[in-house]
Amino acid sequence: MYLSDIFVLKLIVKLIILGCLINKTFSITKSRWNDIKKETKNILEKNWKQPRGITQVGPKPGSYLDYPGFDQAKLEQNRILWDLYYKCLNDQSFHTNSKHVFAAKVIKTFKSFSLKLECELCISPKGLTNKNVWFYSILEKNRSLRLLKENDYYRISPIDLSLTIINIDESKSGFYQCIISSSESRPFIIELFNEDIEPFLETNITKINTKISDTKILIDLRLKMWTEWTEWTTCSTCDEIGIRTKFGFCLIDSITPKINTNENMFNKTNDEHLENLLNAFDTGLPCHSNLLNPNIFNGIKNNPIKVVTEYCRIQCHNDEVFEILDPQGNIIDKVNNSAGIYSSQQIIPELPPKTEKILIITHLNQNFNITCPGNLNTDAPYVWKLNNKTILPLISKSAEDHIYTDILHRLIIQNITKKDETIFTCWQLNYLAGIVRVKIIKEFKLSIQEDMYLLYGAIPIIGLFLWVGFKVFFDKDAAYY
């Protein structure tokens, strides 16, 4: 049950935080801090999935522990959640730097992808119902943060207040931060890769099976550079042979002063701005980040994005069944959620992301690199189809087919023809994610002779307008007749 005395609660929290700031020698590891947050999330998820009950009176979903009454189970869960909250506060100092500030993180991603940003603050059970915690700003000077509201592209979890950004584009790139009361979490800077970027297909299995590979020490720049690999994406389709992908992104960071380098050289090649910039990102800075000066670090920015693909096969989830049991264990309600059917005693599910549509207007013989306009909040690679037939990737550069997909699962059309004026669709996990319609128009070109005829015909018309204007402004009497 919640503490009734708010003042006492705030005082206790402040004392605990103050104790964390003073005691810098505690032996708490980062993994323990994460374990506390996971334990809290598991408890909340378990309660969230329980039936609400038609006759239940009280708070909206998300504050289901607000009124435990004499329910001993809920009272115990409340006590556990508050204990975990105080432990989280006690351990949170480990996750900050010497100034007790969360280091920023730059995330470089591709257009139409989806991202999940964690709110790395300790969230009290009483604060779970407040979703107004995420703020956004575009990356320009003198731009203030604005509150981020949930919509079709921004979703905030009622369990841990994490933010999911669906179908990222230029309008969604920028600065994101979770702010609760006077506490601010790690800032996230979202940047998009250039759509013309050409990734490198990695074939070295040894590098793929490691989290970090290709570590290099750039002594002249006093930097460390490495490739960090993501986890495998979800398989592109289910119940059939599909494709999954893994990406390797280049990162850089400053190295420790232990390496014997020429100090004068360091002062010439690294300015104070760069040093402060790298210190602000404890997980490294992407080599392709817009924050790096392209004139100085052009060689670093030329490092390719590495991609690996392999075949996969997973089963479709067709067995998500929700049941309501009475005290004797008898089934009183049973629905198949996989078929889109839900019980009135369930929490109202989130609507799936909508299918996006775009129209591309072009001329003949143009080349196109098309990214799927939609995303179903999954990292599964896209499957492109034309007339219900899957468009396959290009096997060799000598292939005659001018329509294919690349290793980033984008649709490529070379030398577009009149028969390509049609509708293409992109799919994720057998569900329609986007529709692309291609419309071809004729180019308007005139020869020199046609231009002269047009000019000769326009001169009398222009002269007539000039004469009428002259009469109106300089001969007012004539204008009335």
Task: Write structural notes for this entry.
The protein is α+β, with helices and mostly antiparallel strands. The chain has helices at 6-22, 30-48, 72-91, 205-208, 263-269, 272-279, 298-301, 448-474, 476-479; strands spanning 105-109, 115-117, 134-137, 146-147, 154-156, 163-165, 174-180, 183-184, 188-192, 200-201, 212-218, 223-229, 242-254, 285-286, 306-312, 321-325, 331-336, 356-362, 368-370, 383-386, 389-390, 403-405, 411-413, 423-428, 431-440. The strands form 6 sheets. Strands 1, 3, 4, 7, 8 and 9 form a 6-stranded mixed sheet that branches. Strands 10, 11, 12, 13, 14 and 15 form a 6-stranded mixed sheet that branches.
Question: Approximately what portion of the residues adopt beta-strand conformation?
Answer: 25-35%
- How far is the N terminus from the C terminus? 91 Å
Our count of domains comes out at: 5
Number of strands: 25
Question: What is the helix content?
Answer: 10-25%
How many DSSP helices? Answer: 9
Structural class: alpha+beta
Q: Major β-sheet, in short?
A: 6 strands, mixed
Radius of gyration: 30 Å
Query: Given the C-alpha coordinates, what overall shape results?
Result: globular
Write down the overall mean pLDDT. Answer: 76
Low-pLDDT regions: 1-29, 52-64, 258-270
